[in-house]
Amino acid sequence: MTESLTELKLEVEKTEPTRVPSETRTIRLEGDVFPKLEELAEQENVSISFIINKALRRHVEWQIYAEKFGFMMAFTANMRRIFESLTDLEARDLGRQSAENEFSEFINFWFKKIDFDTTVKALKILGSEYARSFKFEHSFDGSVHTIIFKHDRGPRTSAFFAEIAKVLFNRLNLKVDAVESDQQLSIIVRN
Known about the structure:
CATH topology of the largest domain: H-NOX domain
CATH superfamily of the largest domain: H-NOX domain
Strand content: 5-15%
Order of helices and strands: HHHHHEEHEE
Largest sheet: 4 strands, antiparallel
Distance between the termini: 52 Å
CATH class of the largest domain: Alpha Beta
Number of strands: 4
Helix content: 40-55%
Low-confidence stretches: 1-15
CATH architecture of the largest domain: Alpha-Beta Complex
Number of domains: 2
Strand order of the largest sheet: 1-2-4-3
Shape: globular
């Protein structure tokens, strides 16, 4: 029997999710922590083990190094006001200086080399993954990389991040085109 154009058949390829090896350990939790973990696990519909692993991973992969690099938490509204108090030129100068110093040192420390892949990974870590400076998106269409920094902190913040991106990728002999707005920075990286 022939199928009509309105019928759709989908073949689903089953793949096994990659698993990280795990070990069972016993830990002691302070009395008030476990009820909070239970409540959070229920709200997020995940296991308590998942939350504990996520917190421990964040600590061993980020927090112990963040202190060494002088990272601090700040309210987004305060960061917006700070950037709004800068001129466009001051924000761009600050971005260039940050790329040449702190960002480069971070990439080199974290990955032991500076190349395109480690630069993108560092931006992801400093963006969405751990530092939460911005929401990070990266796509590649086969010839052009598009990277989006969503921050919602005004045009000076976009100027700051645009200069960081330009310095980081230009030193790799890559061309960067930036589109800046109040809410985000979009960059196109090509050879």
